[in-house]
From TrEMBL:
Record has Cell membrane as a keyword: no
Pfam family, one: NID
Organism: Mola mola
Protein name (database record): NID domain-containing protein
GO cellular component, one term: cytoplasm
Lineage: Eukaryota, Metazoa, Chordata, Craniata, Vertebrata
Domain NID: 130-217, 230-314
InterPro entries: Nmi/IFP35_dom (IPR009909), Nucleotide-bd_a/b_plait_sf (IPR012677)
Keywords per UniProt: Coiled coil
Coiled-coil spans in chain: 13-47
């Protein structure tokens, strides 16, 4: 029994050593796996950091772009308001009148006429100024000889200075519009053929009487704009084709193209106007007055009296708002009568 103890102890020691070696191997393997997972975690953290940085940069770029777009929108809105104000000013300043006329021998429903464009005579009325138009020219001449006029206004006296007023330059002209009877405009000419071949195909197609065409005198074509112009030898063909709006042309295959009339315009009767109204004077250096209507009434009463060198008043307007300008318009017909 005593001999068996060392043998068993040796077996136990051997088994324990084997187990220890297995545990060491498992521990080493676990350490390697842990190192691998640690490196993988570091890679994932780095990828997350880069992705987060990229998203943050993109957010900053989007925010900057949004800010730039908002700034651009504000500038565009300011420009739009300025354009609207300028458009309204031009609409008030210019008057367009159309005198349409027709030719009985032209059977085409297009308006052919003359457009009379006339700029309205005007002057800028600043704050502290007034305009008075008298019925008689002699009254204006009398008042302009007075350097200062003392106008009673309630418990105070307003001092005004009569001055000659010069109108802004103005123009008048006519634009005559006509429709060509021999020329036809074509557009949407899409083809992969060379330009010379396209012109040949256009000439052949528009020369066919079966399609409403006629003998072609000249063909023009612009490959950049895909548009052209057909000039027929005799009048009347272009009118009929323009009424259709579409025409079929033989290219690589049959293709529909847009056709329309060719307009001609010219400038006539250009005139310029620049002068001084003979029955209107400018009252300057008007002091600060709160009640504009009250001041207007007192000015009218004062300048209607013959004792003040006045006379019958046709029109009066007052601007007492400092820093605010008004635009006063004059009738061209009445200006012509004064001249």
């Amino acid at each position: 029994w005593r001999r068996m103890i060392p043998e068993k102890a040796g077996d136990v020691i051997t088994r324990l050593m084997l187990e220890k070696m297995e545990e060491d191997e498992a521990k080493k393997k676990a350490r390697q796996e842990m190192m691998a997972y640690s490196k993988k975690q570091e890679v994932c953290e780095e990828e997350f950091t880069n992705s987060l940085r990229s998203v943050q940069n993109e957010i900053q770029m989007v925010g900057k772009r949004r800010f730039d777009l908002l700034d651009k929108l504000k500038r565009c809105q300011v420009e739009l308001e300025a354009k609207k104000a300028e458009s309204m000013k031009l609409k008030r300043k210019f008057k367009v009148r159309m005198k349409p006329y027709r030719f009985p021998h032209i059977k085409i429903p297009f308006n052919i006429g003359a457009f009379a464009i006339r700029q309205r005579l005007s002057v800028i009325l600043q704050g502290g100024q007034a305009l008075i138009t008298f019925e008689e020219q002699r009254v204006t001449s009398q008042i302009l000889k007075v350097p200062k006029c003392f106008v009673p206004c309630d418990s105070d006296t307003v001092i005004v200075k009569p001055k000659i007023m010069t109108l802004d330059p103005a123009v008048k002209f006519e634009v005559h519009l006509d429709v060509s009877r021999r020329e036809l405009h074509i557009s949407n000419v899409f083809s992969s053929l060379p330009e010379e071949r396209i012109k040949d195909r256009l000439e052949m197609s528009f020369s066919r009487p079966s399609r409403g065409g006629g003998e072609v005198e000249r063909v023009e074509y612009n490959g950049n704009t895909r548009t052209g112009q057909i000039t027929f030898l005799y009048p009347g063909v272009a009118e009929g084709l323009a009424l259709r709006g579409k025409f079929t042309v033989d290219m690589e295959c049959e293709k529909n193209m847009d056709v329309g009339p060719v307009y001609r315009h010219s400038l006539h009767r250009f005139q310029t106007f620049c002068g001084i109204p003979k029955r209107t004077i400018l009252l300057d250096d008007i002091g600060d007055v709160e009640d504009e209507e009250n001041l207007q009434d007192h000015l009218m009463i004062h300048f209607q009296k013959p004792s003040n060198c006045g006379g019958e008043i046709e029109y009066i307007t007052v601007n007492t708002s400092r820093g605010k300008a008004l635009q006063a318009f004059f009738s061209c017909e009445k200006m012509a009568e004064e001249a």
